[in-house]
Amino acid sequence: MTNEEKLRTAFMSTFNVDSEVIKDELKYREIPQWDSLAHMKLIAALEEAFDVMFETEQVLDMSSYAIAREILAKQHGIEF
Amino acid sequence: MYWMLEQFGNHHAVELPDGQMLSYAELAALADQAVATLGSGRKLCFLLVNNTIESLAVYLGCLRANHVALLLPENIDQALLALLQESYEPNATWQKSIGWVNRHSYPVPMHADLKLLLSTSGSTGSPKLVRLSANNLHSNAESIVEYLQLTANEKAITVLPMNYTYGLSVINSHLAAGATLLLTELTIIQREFWDFFTRANGTSLVGVPYTYSIYRRIGVFKRMHLPSLRYMTQAGGKLPADEVAEVATWCQEHQVRFYVMYGQTEATARMSYLPPEQTLIKNASVGIAIPGGRFAIEDDNHYELSSPGIDGELIYYGPNVSLGYAEKQSDLLVGDLNQGRLATGDLARYDCDGYVYITGRLKRFIKITGNRIGLDEIENRLKQIGLDAICGGKDDLLCVALVSGDVDQTSEILQREFKLHHSMIKVIAVESIPRNEAGKIRYEEVFKGMY
Known about the structure:
The complex is a heterodimer of chains A (80) and B (451). Chain A is an all-alpha fold. Chain A has helices spanning 3-15, 36-50, 56-61, 65-76. In chain A, helix 1 runs antiparallel to helix 2 (36-50). The longest helix of chain A is centred in the middle third of the chain and has 15 residues, at 36-50. Chain A starts with a helix and ends with a helix. Chain B is an alpha/beta fold and 451 residues long. In chain B, strands 6-5-3-4-7-8-19 form a seven-stranded mixed β-sheet. A five-stranded mixed β-sheet of chain B has the order 11-12-13-14-15, sandwiched between helices. Chain B is built from eleven helices and 26 strands. Classes of the chains: A mainly alpha (80), B alpha/beta (451).
């Protein structure tokens, strides 16, 4: 699985939504499935999938799919 | 009465994330304006609210004009809303994006003491509501002001939804104290929430057990610097004793008062609190009755137990005990059925200092992110849609054993109708449901090892 696929899979399985819902622009609370509860599940899923630990700032900043990718790439050296 | 907003005149009632401030006088004007189109006569109104100034104004407007409002979440399931509308036939419904929709103008027969309606869970597919009086709302708010020692200097930020009894009690008690609400739809996992809290010098944070696990994960008790924070409260389910101790230790080191509390919608909101100086000593206790209230623990024959260490049903007496339930419009005419006495359905015991410890539940329900979910209600709902299933579980985990029907589909139905995250539902398929000789379901056997 590529890292992009891993990222997409983590979003899809956390929110229990189809692939077409997951777009770069997808934002926190834009869909009912991405609430604060699911956000914490998403953080845990991403930490497990990429074997990383997010800091407070990263948890609070991860407000869209594109930003999640950017945080993983820039701050954790994950290549996309 | 906290809805007599004029008593605090020019003091700030509300501060919004964009920096806008509203005085109590301005809030009063806004509240009255929000219900002006309802005209004369007492109306039954459904309000679909969130933590915005528009929602606060319309809620207060209804209280001030003696209309009876039912507070519902803005994102309520449409099928549940339709069921409620059918059961209660309100005069009008309100939501921010649409405004008022008048449904009919016939007077709805309602008891003179009825002031507000709340749902016990906010999401279960039942039209069951709690009937609250003006005295219920007023006395509980005043009691909270007293034991939390709230003054007009407090600035409370909204963490929980306004339609949820705990979230509403934060609003009501701070209005009763003439304090300021930091009113926002932002949530604790957003940077902007914390920016607002810090910039506005917020003085308190509240939360259900799940909120506290988020607080911990995002570093509120480690990395965050919150110098204006003066107190925190926790209710809406049991926070494990070791987590209570962890939060209490941090709070003690940072001169923050930490209150563990206990309550139910049936008691307007609050029934007990654990005084902060006891939190580290009695970290498994829900504390003592709030000012104006009293607890009793009764055995199976309704005799009051007074010795410590013996389990019985926890009974609460106080002016905040609701008038009773409603399931349909005609119930709104009924008066006070509880007469100040509430059988909580929780099992409890005293310690030798008279502090209360909840040890179990008489009624079959679990709490999911602070919201009560009746297990029998879920079984009934599944039966309604043709699924033979039984439910068990613990707080934050609903377990369903399914005799007929599709496992994934059932999980999806529960997620949608009861607004549950899929990770909090476990559905298994079973051949049959084991029962004992008396015909009672053997839940332990079905859900062995699942929770």
